[in-house]
Amino acid sequence: MKIAVYPGSFDPVTMGHMNIIERASKLFDEVVIAVLVNSGKTPLFSLEERVELLKIATAHLPSVTIDSFSGLLVEYMDKKKINIIVKGLRAVTDFEYEYSMALMNKKLNHNIETVFMITEDKYAFLSSSKIKEIYKLGARASDLLPPHTEDILIKKIESLKNK
Ligand code: ADP
Questions:
Q1: Residue 48: what pLDDT?
Q2: Residue 157: which CATH number?
Q3: What is the distance between the alpha carbons of residues 58 and 14, in angstroms, rounded to a whole number?
Q4: Residues contacting 129, CB < 8 A, separation 6+
Q5: Burial label, 108 (beta-carbon count in 10 A; 0-12, 13-18, 19+)
Q6: What is the pLDDT of residues 25-79, one digit of tens each?
């Protein structure tokens, strides 16, 4: 069984993430999406909300499961007996960070392989932070978000405004 882990903060899941998840699910028997608990920055959505949004967005993909982890990814992978990491690559700006991350993970555990998937060009500029920024400013980009995610994002931003 080829199992891969797809780690990230998914705050919230975008169509860029979905593009990688759908393609990875064709390459591996199982894809475990591992949501980062402590991403450094304060997330807009709680861990439970980010997991729930991913569950809904991936409901049509039976080989995809959602989990969460904190601390070192390699320790999580060791515990779960997974040795493949899938990462999405957007512009060259992702490359340097992901390159050093892949080398560091390899140093920590030599059995780990990182597989990079190049995003489709229409998602090359897409990030969760950009999405949050534009939605907070009142703009919409419905084709860049799973439909349910967009509804919840709009509601979340509204609820924060009313506080
Ligand atoms: P971000 O907050 O930058 O959107 P995450 O931390 O949730 O991203 O990213 C998880 C993984 O998804 C990373 O490997 C990241 O490179 C990848 N990813 C994010 N957005 C895209 C996209 N538009 N296309 C391809 N991969 C992406």
A1: 97
A2: 3.40.50.620
A3: 11
A4: none
A5: middle
A6: 999 999 999 999 976 778 999 999 999 999 999 999 999 999 999 999 999 999 9
In the block, which residue shows the tokens 């894809």? 31
Catalytic residue (one of 23, 80, 90, 130) = 90
Sheet holding 113-118, edge to edge: 64-69, 30-36, 3-8, 84-89, 113-118
The two three-digit tokens of residue 150, written as one number: 């967009």
What confidence score (pLDDT) does residue 60 get? 97
Gap from CA of 36 to ligand 1 centroid (Å): 12
Distance CA(41)–CA(39), nearest Å, equals: 6
Q: Find the 15 Cα to ligand 1 centroid distance in Å.
A: 10
Question: pTM for this one?
Answer: 0.94
132 lines ligand 1 (CB under 6 A): no
Does the active-site annotation cover 130? no
Report how many domains make up the chain.
Answer: 1
Looking at residue 105, its amino acid is N
Domain encompassing residue 57: 3-161
